[in-house]
Prior knowledge:
This protein is α/β, with parallel strands linked by helices. It has 2 domains: 2-221, Spore Coat Polysaccharide Biosynthesis Protein SpsA, Chain A (Alpha-Beta Complex), CATH 3.90.550.10; 252-349, UDP N-Acetylglucosamine Acyltransferase, domain 1. The protein has 7 helices and 30 strands. The strands form 7 sheets. A 7-stranded mixed β-sheet has the order 5-4-1-6-11-8-12, with helices on both faces. It has a 6-stranded parallel β-sheet with strand order 14-17-20-23-26-29, with helices on one face. The protein has a 6-stranded parallel β-sheet with strand order 15-18-21-24-27-30, with no helix packed on it.
Amino acid sequence: xxxxxxxxxxxxxxxxxxxxxxxxxxxxxxxxxxxxxxxxxxxxxxxxxxxxxxxxxxxxxxxxxxxxxxxxxxxxxxxxxxxxxxxxxxxxxxxxxxxxxxxxxxxxxxxxxxxxxxxxxxxxxxxxxxxxxxxxxxxxxxxxxxxxxxxxxxxxxxxxxxxxxxxxxxxxxxxxxxxxxxxxxxxxxxxxxxxxxxxxxxxxxxxxxxxxxxxxxxxxxxxxxxxxxxxxxxxxxxxxxxxxxxxxxxxxxxxxxxxxxxxxxxxxxxxxxxxxxxxxxxxxxxxxxxxxxxxxxxxxxxxxxxxxxxxxxxxxxxxxxxxxxxxxxxxxxxxxxxxxxxxxxxxxxx
Length: 350
């Protein structure tokens, strides 16, 4: 079994984090998210992955290499220009030789891929789509199906109150190679808006696989923080590295090599990356600090994301919802308003 992982997006909603790191490589509790995805695929018995990449692909290539360190065969197909979700599949058609998974590169889920394989084997259609139920389906693509799971309609982002169902496309598919015949070559094609509806018109069968698994789109800073809350609380089952400070409470994760002054207060839902240095009397709550962040004395950080090598000067206050990019310097005494975005390499906030 093979898998295609769509990792071509620029991650604009996560900026400034993605100015220095491609979206699939943002860390989840110290490990690039894409590595978490590869681990899941390997555990499901999938041994060959194609990365359909576009934005900052070298960072992905440098980390994964040929895949042997992950006991996988990894192939890279770099898009010269964005091809959309279906166009990206068509672009890697030559590498596919049987049924294959498609995974969006920004979805964190506990979906059992082996169980989905078995469902596809029994249903016998052209493909299976993973669905989840959400409270407000108006922001998603709703998928309508009958009692057997056979899909009859796709309704993209219906007006609130008019949703035909609360089941939405969760971004994991298992498809047969014959789907490539439904995708035109050489242009941007959306699998959600063009390919799947065209399959229904052709009277071929697509099936829904609805589960109650954990699922979140990591494409927004608030979702990124929510994912860490869920991982630290155990709501999202995810194996964390054993190489971290185990003397701290269960909802605090500090990687090995970080230095934290004993007078610092770490609240719940805090992740501190490798090589960080945190000074005296600092208060941090509900935040994620990437590697090698330096925090001066008497700083307060609330519900924020701070990218690698940023420096926060003494007596600074970082308001809730703030995102600070790579190498940013926050001068001593600075008060950052809530929901600020401070980015750019070696930028300074004063």
